[in-house]
Amino acid sequence: MDSMGFGKRKASSKLPIEAKLVQATLDYADLGVKPGQTIRILARESCSDNDLSSFFPEIHLTLK
Fold it and tell me: Got the DSSP string for the chain?
């Protein structure tokens, strides 16, 4: 997981992705967010070039 300005780095899971669903658990404190906030998630293929086609569709997630 890349910190993208959150000030910390956290090791990513080393389990292989075997389906179309990826799940992860993060503490709100790791992201510096509070319940009720909406965050934007951007994911890209790690083995790709840094072009725009390597990004998956943007996700907006409202925290509970």
Answer: ---TTSS---PPP-SPP-SS-------HHHHT--TT-EEEE--B-TTS-SSGGGBPPPEEEE--
